[in-house]
Design goal:
The chain is of the alpha/beta class. 42% of the residues lie in helices and 18% in strands. The protein is flat and about 60 Å long.
Amino acid sequence: MLKAGIVGLPNVGKSTLFNAVTRTRNAEAANYPFCTIDPNVGIVTVPDSRLRELQRIAKTGVVIPAAIEFVDIAGLVKGASQGEGLGNKFLTHIREVDSIVQVVRCFEDADVHHVSGDVDPVRDIEIINTELILSDLEQVSKRRERLTKEIKRGDKAAAAEEAVLEKIESYLNEGKPALVVELTPEERALSTPLFLLSDKPTIFACNVRESDLASADTNHFVQQVRDYVGMHLACEAIVISAQIESELVELSPDEAQAFLAELGVQESGIGALIRSTYQLLGLRTYFTAGEKEVRAWTIHAGDTAPRAAGVIHSDFERGFIKAETVAYDDLIRCGSVAAAREIGLYRMEGKDYVVADGDVLIFKFNV
């Protein structure tokens, strides 16, 4: 299961957000730096309204959503790459995740300590990114030193890797994360084994006060974050209120919806954050739907039908014959598999078929 790491400066709401996303109280959330030391890990289901419609058609009481893993990582501070704060130990924790959710404080509150003394979300983003970049620079430099010896021996693979790392290092030296370096698929394959911190897909969570959630689009801190990450990092920014989310954990779905309505919002930011993180990880969903259960299965974008079948069981992939499939929208419009089949929307696909997000599939196999 792929992991998304929640990172940021101390006291920006990371652990509160983790508790809300995972609907637990596993992470200590306190008003002092470094209240999180060891990473907290939780499995999070991915909100997907399509499951309810498929449940209605399949007439089943069992629904199993897709899931991803979230990791709450201790706060970083300026100088972390040189051991400041909790230092390199937590940079290592970031290295182990597949994507980053960077929480940025977008509210002022004299009662909540800020490690830098005042609220400046762009400065905070740059502090985090600088530490990731400095750590990457050290790693790239060491790798290039080792490659020099291999290149002198005429190793062409080493020369190809060196050329890619030189390109990446030039960006890092300019204070730009590896994420924005334009690389061909072949070049990216050469850099992937380094697991560069600043190369991880990133989404920014703008943490606002409860009273600001409904008017977040006019919040000047949120606007600063959106402008900055859009221009410099080509990343998405989602608005959340970690404190509201932590309160929603204690409520039933109906009570939560009523509470949000009082605040003037239709949906909490958590659903959007989880869905965006799922997409950020390059994940897609296909469904199986029958009387036994409706289930969302997680695949990677671009996966073929046999690989998708293998998610259910390796025998399905090994003995794959064909996939019966119908697009979700077509199935909902027709109202049943039988109706979709009658008008030719339910079709057979072979080994080369690339599964689309939302496909409803039945696999035929023989082992």
